[in-house]
Amino acid sequence: MDLGIRGRKAIVNGGSAGMGRSAVLSLAREGVECFVSARTEDRLVKACEEIAAETGSKVHPICADHSTEAGRAKILAACPEPDILVGTCSPPPMTPDYRAISDADWREAIDISLLSPIAFMRAVVDGMAQRGWGRVVNIATVAAKYPGEIRALSGSTRAALANYCVAVSKVVAKHNVIINNLLPGMHHSAFVEKQFTERAAAKGITYAEEVAEFSREWRIAAERFGDCDDVGDMVAVFCSQQANYITGQSLVIDGGATTSVF
């Protein structure tokens, strides 16, 4: 299916690995010119070169920390009038004890996963509205809708982000600016693989065994973790022309780990 976004320009923050990289890949396959930010330059450049070679689309690396004012200015200078804004970031560590979360942990989580995406939306959404077309997709976390102690840092800040996105979506929908959120559960990202490899080593078991054990413990109906490309493809769908009547939504992608009728 042609998603109707060929020739559009997208900013993808946190796009060098994991779900962000998958979002860049899916958009580039649709002919979108992508401006990709991340903090680790070598990994970022490598990812952009690989995606450009595979898709034939233009993919521009921007080494910057999008949680800082200077980083945001650098990204927006490279693409001041994006048609598409996709936001994600490396999630904070799991928090098995909420009492151990420090003030510094809270400030970092708020800066990168709440204030940064809000600042980007404030910078680009009005321009999208004036041009009569725009898409914003924030890749958040299932913990924004279904809180859990181990995701207290990421869930709480992204729940606030989802609330803000829905509020703004009501204002700009009449200008064909569509704002939605994706709420992924457990996926085989570099972050997850690192954490679960360490967990497995501490128990003397394999990564696959640790994933299976976690899937049983958390009652993931699919009995496995997802692939990041599954999330990336949904980003492209939410950015498509066909998504023009879907706004202010937060789609859970968790393999059936959570239970809700709506």
From TrEMBL:
Top-level division of the source organism's lineage: Bacteria
Record-linked Gene3D superfamilies: NAD(P)-binding Rossmann-like Domain (3.40.50.720)
InterPro entries, alphabetized: NAD(P)-bd_dom_sf (IPR036291), SDR (IPR050259), SDR_fam (IPR002347)
Pfam families in alphabetical order: adh_short_C2
Name the family the entry cites: Belongs to the short-chain dehydrogenases/reductases (SDR) family.
Q: What is this protein called?
A: SDR family oxidoreductase
Source species taxonomy: Bacteria, Pseudomonadati, Pseudomonadota, Alphaproteobacteria, Sphingomonadales
